[in-house]
Q: What sequence folds into this?
């Protein structure tokens, strides 16, 4: 699996699985600074298969432009049920995938290049340029088409399960978070 695919898997919906994403939930979480935006809807309409094209309704309000050089700090956990309790095992940052910190603009730029497996610019408002730093805008798209690549058999097996992800967007000028999202996914 390419590093770019893993990054967008974690960053945008954390939905990948051996057969399908059976359940995905998200909630906005507290950040050090407020007023940068809100995720109103991420509704994946189809099961995610590898390979597949799925449609999603997305509504993200960016109420203040992202700071220049912003990063997203991902903390990814594989969740296991043991003795009736959920246990979280942190997935480390390996080869720039997993619980890592990523440059938001570099991710956006890489995603929009030909051959990229997941293009974040598909959720940009029509007629507005897909630019970074991300300006004040409303990223609202119904039936956005998201493409997922073929995964080798072992990779399909390994991504199957329950996940919890915390995505904190960090302002490089003061190292404080300005936007936060918690995502949980059950992957088939």
A:
């Amino acid at each position: 699996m390419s590093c770019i695919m893993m990054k967008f898997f974690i960053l945008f919906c954390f939905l990948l699985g051996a057969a399908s994403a059976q359940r995905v939930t998200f909630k906005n979480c507290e950040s050090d600074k407020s007023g940068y935006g809100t995720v109103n809807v991420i509704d994946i309409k189809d099961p995610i298969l590898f390979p597949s094209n799925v449609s999603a309704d997305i509504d993200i309000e960016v109420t203040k432009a992202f700071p220049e050089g912003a990063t997203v700090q991902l903390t990814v956990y594989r969740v296991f049920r043991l003795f009736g309790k959920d246990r979280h095992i942190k997935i480390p940052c390996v080869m720039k995938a997993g619980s890592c910190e990523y440059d938001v603009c570099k991710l956006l730029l890489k995603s929009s290049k030909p051959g990229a497996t997941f293009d974040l610019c598909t959720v940009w408002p029509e007629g507005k340029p897909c630019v970074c730093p991300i300006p004040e805008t409303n990223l609202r798209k119904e039936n956005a088409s998201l493409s997922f690549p073929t995964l080798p058999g072992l990779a399909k097996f390994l991504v199957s399960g329950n996940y919890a992800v915390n995505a904190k967007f960090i302002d490089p000028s003061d190292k404080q978070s300005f936007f936060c999202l918690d995502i949980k996914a059950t992957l088939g």
The radius of gyration is 16 Å. The helical segments are 3-13, 104-111, 153-159. Residues 3-13 form the longest helix (11 residues).
